[in-house]
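Ligand: S-adenosylmethionine. Inputs:
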Amino acid sequence: MDLLTLPPPLPAERIVELNRPKGDLHTTRSYRWNGWDIEVPPGVFRPGLTSAMIFDRVLSGEIEVRGRRYLAMGCGLGVEVAAAAARGAADVYAVDVHPASVATAADNARRLAPARPAGERSTRVHAVVADVLDGFPQDTRVDVVTFNPPAVSRPVSDDPDVVRNVCAGAPLLERFFAQLAGRDVLAPGAEVYVIASNTADLREIVAHAVAHGFTSEVALRHDWDDGVLTYLFRFTAGARA
Ligand SMILES: C[S@@+](CC[C@H](N)C(=O)[O-])C[C@H]1O[C@@H](n2cnc3c(N)ncnc32)[C@H](O)[C@@H]1O
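Predicted complex:
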């Protein structure tokens, strides 16, 4: 991929304006998706429209997890974990650096995903507290990874929980791709989906992936008509693009 086809980050003031914290992160909130009413505990990211772009695709199979081993990186509330269980993933690894998010995600998957038809094995949900892959079980391979990272490129708060959820920036993605490439976690043919917008440094993110040997393609580009462009990238291990 020619990195220059990706938009540069929006102006700093616009990024900060778009991501100004609501001030309610440390309270209990609610979220509804797919008819599921979910309580969002303090500190856990409340999903937004970008999050739902992943949830919709996991449930529909556009990001196919059925019968596969799926790693939900930065799972937060765990709606994608529950969607994958509903879709019929073999295994789902609910991974987050925030222990309360991991516990919530695992609970939500067990509570929300409908029972599998008789004779079909239910999804095994693995709750994993890890700093990216530091803490992920050795000798475990996965077929699909998704990550809606806190990729916003400008600091929008001093609160470390807001930073963790929103604006850790491209350096986190550098660690993500370095660890994916350096550890034997991706099964042959594995797909890695990352979603981010031009409130992040998209060129730097993709450059990190390419530097670690991944091939990149744009699976989806969404224009929100307010200057924000969201990209869903699909990365595969292999020849450089
Ligand atoms: C934008 S939220 C996405 C949450 C959820 N996947 C969604 O789409 O609603 C980013 C998530 O990444 C997690 N996170 C931040 N840094 C991380 C790290 N170093 N390792 C693992 N997870 C991390 C945060 O705790 C948060 O849950």
